[in-house]
Give the backbone structure.
Amino acid sequence: MREKKTANIALYGLLIALAMVFGFVESLIPLPVPVPGMKIGLANLVTMVGLELAGIRGTVCVTLLRVVLTGLTFGNPYSMLYGLSGSFVSLAVMAEAKRYRLFSRVGISILGGVFHNVGQLVFAAFLVQTAGVFVYLPALLIAGCAAGAVIGLVGGLLSERLSRLFSL
């Protein structure tokens, strides 16, 4: 039992550290796109891997720490709020899709990418008190599908390797 706890702590630490590195790398990549704040979503790899290896409870904790620590280190309070809104909507949708086995890993990741963007747009609309922000929805849906597909493929490979490493 103690070994399992130690393995979980090590896994959570690794996931949070990976998310911090991905967040840093992502902050260095300028994207020439017309949508403000659009990112590749590298840190969302951690969410995909977390769902596979740590379950929903562990992934909620890792996601919360990931967004807060990355926001404090590379962002600002608004980036944290946007990150939390997108991450938790995305995580809820992915967890339900995984629970009911509705989609493959890639499909779940695409849902995550799309709903991350939807969650952030809903938060933005609430914050600025206008639905005008939804003009960005088509571009964000396309980006969420593309990034979600790549994250799903890479996340699947990473999950398999880490599950062997941690004997989960």
Summary: The chain has a mean pLDDT of 91. The two ends are 13 Å apart (CA to CA).
